[in-house]
């Protein structure tokens, strides 16, 4: 049953469970009262966390306690509306000191600056740079192209060279397709992500070709595996962020977070005029979460609110779809 949750979700839930037991230990809560946990105790737990942590993190921790109940066959006594009310309150009570700064987006120019700080004949550098350009132009999460640890790589759940293919439309526009073997929404069926060649020194096609030449990963190894002596190591998220961090520092720039890659990709394509619904499909959003990016960048909407009927109609069709 534990496989109902993805690996990264289980990690977050595990931290939440640890926080739960630390909270109960501190309050001398007996084991029998920890599961099933009653509403007053869970409310006190959430209130305790609200003084320090972000609302989203508290939500993960509370859901971790819930998952623990489910896995052990213990009734979960909270109704959904009670959980929602608790978490809404916790989010509003989050102190300003705990709130993260807005994530600045990656841009092609910023990626180009990082490229100048890397040696693309070096196995690790070329793997990291190729992974970066792939994530950016495929509008994909970094976690989908890296592994958590060296030991957690498995061909059935992580991308390999076998998952790389090419396609083209009727106008002979070539598209690079990468099949993600497993995703949260699609499960083991996976999903395809894709990009096309770009102009300039951030071209993902050239980066990938160089990576395959320098590192020569086997068909069954991690797509972004890099050579270390006579071995190939899968590219972990930690190693990726570590190397990018060094490049950022060497360039004298402010560090950005991993999720800023996907944010930057979304912004870049929208600024190029890619329609909202097409960007939603490319980014594989099940809901309208990507609209949060629009609220932070009014320049995206500006072309759609000018007195140009064709563009204006596109905006209206998306924001006010016809009745069914």
UniProtKB/TrEMBL annotation:
Q: Which GO terms describe its biological process?
A: DNA integration; DNA recombination
**MF terms (GO), sorted A to Z:** DNA binding
Is DNA-binding given among the entry's keywords? yes
- Which UniProt keywords are given for this protein, alphabetically ordered? DNA recombination, DNA-binding
Query: Which InterPro entries did the record assign?
Result: DNA_brk_join_enz, Integrase-like_cat_sf, Integrase_recombinase_N, Phage_Integrase-like_Recomb
Superkingdom, taxonomy of origin: Eukaryota
Q: What is the protein's given name?
A: Uncharacterized protein
Organism ancestry: Eukaryota, Fungi, Dikarya, Basidiomycota, Agaricomycotina
